[in-house]
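Dear Dr. H.,

I hope your travels went smoothly. While you were away I took the liberty of generating a structure for the chain from your last submission, since the lab meeting agenda had it listed for discussion. I wanted you to have the full record in hand beforehand rather than looking at slides cold. The sequence, exactly as received, is reproduced here:
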Amino acid sequence: MAKVQIKVEEKLFAVEKTLLVRHSEYFRALFESGMRESTQDKLQIQGFTALGFLTMLRVLGGERPILNCEEILQAVECAAFLQVKALAKYLMNSINSDNCLVMFQAAATYGLLDLFHAAALFIRDIYSDFGDYLDCLPTDLVDYVESLLPSTFLAVGQHTPSFEFLEDYSRTICYLDEDANMWRTLGCLPEQASTFLAGVTTLDNKMYIVGGARGASKQVVDLSFCYDADSNSWSQFSSPQQLRYDISLIGHEGYLLAIGGEYNKISLNSVEKYNVSSGTWTFASDLPQPIAGAPCAKTMGRIFVCLWKPLDTTIIYEYESRKDMWLPIADLKRSQSYGHCMVAHRDDLYVMRNGPSDDFLHCIIECFNLSSQQWTALPGQYVNSKGALFTSVVRGDTVFTLNRMVTLIYSIEDKKWKPKKEKAGFPKGGSLHTFFLRLPKVT
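The corresponding predicted structure, in token form, is as follows:
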């Protein structure tokens, strides 16, 4: 393909023109302008650094570099000057507690509004952890962070629709009032909604329920529901083309991904994507094998699912959305290695499974690092009384787990889970769905 030489500072880069035109508004306008520069095969560009331009090229080339603060500053500058959305999105997916303040200030300086807002939301969620560190921010930036809603921990039990005249306590959605240390009722599920063997996830401050079943016969529910936390309202939307229950559901970049599941007690390997803006379902590439209730997780803009095969083998696949492919990235052979739950933190995936000798009161946690491609085992065993660790969700550097007795909260430090605090347990028994939403002031 035709290449152009781009000189930034004193360094020369040979880059495909099509790559620049496809990803950069600046270069698209330049090459289509008809000006003299549009036909030259060598250009000198000013306004950003060679390091920032190199970082952009690495990201556009498919790399996933871990950036230090200086690289972040220069990448933000480059993304803003050249108007490269792919680089800005990569930065958004890389926000963590170590770099969020740098991202926030840099995005404010260079006018990357989506990155600015995403970093502010992250800071709001871990606001109490910063202490005096926020004094380094200008007052107007602190005011913006404080104007945002923090994430709230919510849970809903396994509910199956019953007769309308029967009061069903399992229909309620509850949230944890962390200050008062008690669970409060947010509202009720729609009468026809089922969370029994349903896929439940969140996207853009909305909760989605897809699939599910009624009763012991597992009659599939053919309605899907969306709860909008901003307006405190429910709506219905179409169900997948292949009706299914016991599915895994994950939300990502304007889509819902319904993974596997069962229908008529037969496991499925089909996957469907729901476009939230158009309200349509389309089939994606099939899973490598049929699976129901597969653990899945999302981190750094990437989607992962945990499958298992005979002989105690767990395989983690990544869904490559641009290529619509499931790519195997790791496998693990352990006794009882099938994963009951998987959560993600930064570039680590944590897979939880039963302890030795079918010990359902404890679980073992294995960590797979996406950057080093290495497995490590977390020391010790973690209490799994009534499924606590099988409902884990992460906010910032904190893991929230839940059962009827206690809400166990861990901090993730050096790839270890350290007990942080205990809060009130959930007031109902049975399996749970847990998630975070930003709730307007609840009355």
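Two observations you may find useful: The two ends are 61 Å apart (CA to CA). The longest helix spans residues 69-82.

With kind regards,
E. W.
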